[in-house]
Specification:
Helix content is 10%, strand content 55%. The protein is mainly β.
Length: 94
């Protein structure tokens, strides 16, 4: 599940559908993990990222910077993303 910068909550099937439709597609994704918190079967990563959306994605062709929080859980000896929150950072010069 993801709380997206578009003010929408997307579940797994929504995310997969948006990816297939070209609504989540990037020519660039740079992620800077600034903090990692580790629990028994949970890891939370926090930081910033920059993307350049393409295709039918909102803000296609523009560089988008945002803050993120990703929550990972360990199931059957494998880590998978369980939840994500991302907020676009406004460029005050625009």
């Amino acid at each position: 599940m993801a709380n997206t910068p578009l003010n929408r909550i997307l579940k797994t099937a929504d995310i997969q559908g948006a990816m297939k439709a070209g609504l989540i597609k990037y020519s660039l994704l740079e992620r800077n993990i600034e903090e990692i918190m580790i629990g028994d079967h949970v890891v939370i990563t926090l930081g910033s990222e920059a993307t350049i959306p393409i295709d039918k994605a909102p803000m296609a062709g523009q560089k988008v910077t945002r803050r993120f929080t990703n929550t990972w859980i360990k199931e059957n000896n494998e880590w998978r993303m369980f939840a994500r929150h991302a907020s676009n950072i406004c460029d005050e010069d625009k």
